[in-house]
Each structure stands twice: as structure tokens, then as C-alpha cells.
Predict the 3D structure of the following.
Amino acid sequence: MSNLADKIKKLKKERQALILVHNYQLPEVQDIADHLGDSLELSRIAAKSDAKVIVFCGVHFMAETASILCPDKKIIMPDAKSGCPMANMITAEDLRELKSRHPKAVVVGYVNTSADVKAELDICCTSTNAVDIVNKLKNAEEIIFIPDKYLADYVSKKTGRVLVSRDGYCPTHVKILPEDIVKSVRKHPQAKVIVHPECTPEVISLADEALSTGKMCKYVRESQAKEFIIGTEVGIIYRLHKDNPTKKFYPATELAICPNMKRNTQEKVLWALEELKEEVKVPDDIRRRAKKSIEKMLEMV
Ligand code: 13P
Ligand code: SF4
């Protein structure tokens, strides 16, 4: 273990802190994680833990979700500039305007949204449970699904429901092209192709499975296959290798990098623990409304 990692371990104890790390983070950050996971898994762990401080190594909406679920804990981000461009593609005002044009619609929103936007939702969802949630809205006359138009398309195909969406997308996942999958399959014909549902419909149609990052880890662990083509942010491959040393992983493209996920380093985690900064705290009125949409999701799945 590096000198920095030793210091982090020691200080983390003193601060009664827990380090939560998203599956896309740099290897050096994954190596100091108390828990690695997808956006929902990490927030659930934050809510259950009795730590006083949560160091959230992911992007801003994830730390906000933890703050919504556990207002009594101090949630800190080693680099508060780590935003999610997809989450930033819709504001609460945009959503209010969309709602005013579809007053009867049930409003479902991806967890990749700001707390302000979550406060406008009826139900939050993640890529793990979006299909289940929409399937359960049998009586809804109309459904708004924001912000990701590709996730909306995927959910719409799986559920047979027409969804009102917007032009949001993930700039990292659109870098994965259908021709990348075709080339990789030609090179590795035995490999299973697993992609994230934030990929374009053309890419998803070429895959064996479209899965959240948490479900990808489970799928690989339980699969008899020995090789996998991975159509998501490349950071997850470090974890997949570590968890499954005898299996082989090929990124669909090396270009699928989320720069915001790469801002954290061990050094920044240490500073964050030393200074207990940058704190992410959702104001109480927004928090209460946003929490309802998350609780509704947890109730439904
Ligand atoms: P997961 O919840 O599947 O980890 O996805 C988060 C994300 O930002 C994907 O780009
Ligand atoms: Fe946002 Fe895409 Fe980065 Fe995920 S990979 S955090 S959706 S920009």
C-alpha cells in the first residue's frame, strides 16, 4: 500500500469516515475504497452506515443523492467540480415547463439529475430499475422520462410504452459506436457483449445485455463466459479484472472516458479528509421533496 493510502487509512479512522467509490473511478481511487459500486448501491450504503463522514468519489449528483438520503452525515467530495454533463442537460425550470405541457403525466427521472430536478419528480429511477418502474405504471395515461433520451428509448422498447423525453444524453457513452462493437466481436467472437443502457440504440441492439455498472459486475461474476466486450466507461475494467482474474475484458473503445470521473486522486481524497471539504449539502426544502421521489423508487422495486 502506498504512503498516501496509509495516511488515508489512518485519517479515515480518526474522522469516522467511509470512502465510497463509483465503478468508473481511477484505479488508485478504487484501491482505497471501503465500497465500490454503482450510483444507487453507493447511496444505499451511505444511508445504512453509521459513519459520520462520507467521502464520495463519483460525480456531483451522486454525492447529492447521499446528502438527500442522509442529511445528518457530512458528505464530502474530493473534487466538487466533478459534475455529470448529462445531469446538467436539464434544469428544474426546464422540467416544470415540460410538466406544464403534459399536466397529466407521471414524471420519472433518472438518478443522474440534480437535487433541484429530483424535487420535481414523482419517481426517481436508476439504470438498474428503470424498466421495472415504468412497467409498474400501468395506470399512467402519460409518462415523462428524463433526462436521457437513449435510456428512455431503451425503456420504451422494453416496456412498450411511449415516453415523453428530452434531448439529454451521456457524452461518454455516445463515443461508443456500432462499428466498435462489430470490430470487437470480429476480433473476439467468443466474447459476450455487455453495454450500458446510456449507449445509443444502435449499440444496444448489437449487445447481449444492456446493464447498469452494478449489474455488469454481477453478470460477469455469474457468467460461464471467459471473455467480455465492455461497452461503458473504461474505468470499470480495472474492477472487473480484479474481481475476475481468470476472465478477459476488452473495452468496446478506449475513447469511452468520463473526464469528470477521473478528477479524483488519492492526494485529493487525503486533502478532503484533512480539511473535511468540499461539503455537498442539499437545502432542506429541496431535500424533502427530492427524497420523496427516491423513496417512491425504493418502495416500487
Ligand atoms: P450506474 O448507476 O450504472 O453506475 O451509472 C452511472 C453513470 O453515470 C453511468 O454513466
Ligand atoms: Fe454522467 Fe456519462 Fe459521466 Fe456517467 S459517464 S457521470 S452519465 S457524463
In short: The chain has three domains: 3-83+261-282, 87-168, 173-251. Residues 41 and 214 are 8 Å apart (CA to CA). Residues 173-251 form a domain with the Rossmann fold fold (CATH 3.40.50.10800). The first strand starts at residue 17 and ends at 22.
